[in-house]
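Sample pair:
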Amino acid sequence: MNKQKQTLLRKQVLPYEYSETSKSIKQLFNTFLPFLCLWAFAYMSLQVSYALTFIFAVLAAGFLTRIFIIFHDCCHNSFFKNRKANRILGTITGIMTLFPFKKWQHSHNVHHAGSGNLDKRGIGDIWMMTIKEYQEANIWTKLQYRLYRNPLIMFGLGPIYAFLIQNRFNRKGAKMKERWNTYLINICIVLIVAFLCYALGWQSFLLVQGTIFYVSGVAGIWLFYVQHTFEDSYFEETGDWEYVKAAVEGSSYYKLPKVLQWLTGNIGYHHVHHLSPRVPNYKLEDVHNHTVPLQHVPTITLATSLQSLKFRLWDEENKQFVTFKEMKKPSKSNKSIA
């Protein structure tokens, strides 16, 4: 894709870069109300059986994932036109999802600014090493990386560490407003948890909220992982890196069943989101459907996305993800020479 086509593509998306208050408010109602109702049903069903509670909790986790997408839009100032309204709602949804609004807004914007840039990894993204980096790393770093990329740890312990622990602390160099926003969210979380434990009993609260938190946390990490980890993704060093190419080639179109697409706030149209973060989640599908070049991007489905679990390292020579076993095999270029 040459520069002229990239410029044209960005112009085609511009008309969608605005929020509609009526649609945003409607989304609040059809997301928050079902979540609160399902939470209540999950709690009441404890008197029947945990199996029934689990069903309600899993459904509530789907709506909590949708609440996170609203939080995510607020971080991009795309859910409401007013920045203050985005900040207030972002803080509220940050309390509900255990995410510090200002801190995550910063790290996520850094992620967008350098997604696919090999020289700008480390903030707001998943740890990824190239074959060369891994081969040159010491044993301790290799062990850490293997543990980090192990699906059982990434999706098993990941939600607990990243959302419950890591999100509670400010980053180094954070400005005062960002720090106080994190403190505010932490205090609110503690007060709400304390109140609910007192009112409902800590065992009941843990059974309901613990299940909702864990299921939605696993879903969140999976969505973020699969949106940038597919075989022929895009990674380049700064000199060759291009924003538009990184967006449309390095971010997947995760084609989900309509129900899951709705619950995940259309975030499967991740190529559209990375091309223009100012497009609210309820317009991402429209952009995809009305912009022909965006319909020919890397597409994955529920079935094919499972293949991404095996990818561990980025092969700079062949421009693709590989497994640890494939790292040891001769490269494609070497085979062709032979």
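The radius of gyration is 21 Å.
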